[in-house]
Amino acid sequence: MTPSSPSSSTVTPSTDPHLQSRRRRISDSIHPPHSIEELLLEAQHRWLRPTEICEILRNYRSFHIAPEPANRPPSGSLFLFDRKVLRYFRKDGHNWRKKRDGKTVKEAHERLKAESVDVLHCYYAHGEDNENFQRRTYWMLEESFMHIVLVHYLEVKGSKGSSSHSRDDNEMAHTQMDSPVCSSSFSSQNQLPSQATDAGSFNSAYKAEYEDADSVYLKRDPIQQIVVKQDPDTALSLGYSMKMEP
């Protein structure tokens, strides 16, 4: 006797309207104690908390999202891009730790919580040459914002590779690990990655997700700048698109 196929009306966690509504209410209630300017400056030295990341992602329209890729961005750099516009975003010139095939970047994944509800995807990559240098990629589970991605680069002093996290990670709850997002998930600019999940432990395994891709270089806005990192040859910034009063 063959099992019957699942009903097309089955509601998954990612599409549950009640869960989506709760995520929206939680996101709407998020008011970090710092201004966004302060958050961006603090991001030079520490990882942002889930509530702070959500605040930036929800206000993405206030920022300039440039189509230019970054090349080897330094510690403290922040990037925003629209996955509907840019097909790839991970090819940044850095040498990240690889899987056994020597080609695919090894990334750990977890879902971050706010008020006991999953609100963010987070993907971790660690430097091959410098294990203290890490890249974290975030996007919201809320459907209306899941196309906007925040990428953060940071060198964590005293880190011992993938087993260590900063003190700010105490607010990041470990949950299920998603199956890796295949390159075919991005075959269309308007196509969003699969939300299928597999049970697993963050500490026991890595899930690979690598795309032969370009990151977005957030150029300086002539109206206002929030400088995130200043190097002799590079200035990474997030600028408000709203004109400020004199």
Automatic annotation (TrEMBL):
Q: Which keywords label this protein?
A: Nucleus, Transcription
Record's GO cellular component terms = nucleus
Where does the CG-1 domain lie? 36-162
Q: Where is this region: Disordered?
A: 1-23, 160-199
Where does this protein reside within or beyond the cell?
A: Nucleus
What are this entry's molecular-function GO terms?
Answer: double-stranded DNA binding; transcription coregulator activity
Instruction: List the InterPro entries hit by this protein, alphabetically.
Output: CG-1_dom
**Composition skew (Low complexity), residue ranges:** 1-17, 179-195
- What Gene Ontology terms for biological process does this UniProt record contain? regulation of transcription by RNA polymerase II
Q: What protein is this chain from? A: Calmodulin-binding transcription activator 3-like
Q: Which organism is it from?
A: Iris pallida (Sweet iris)
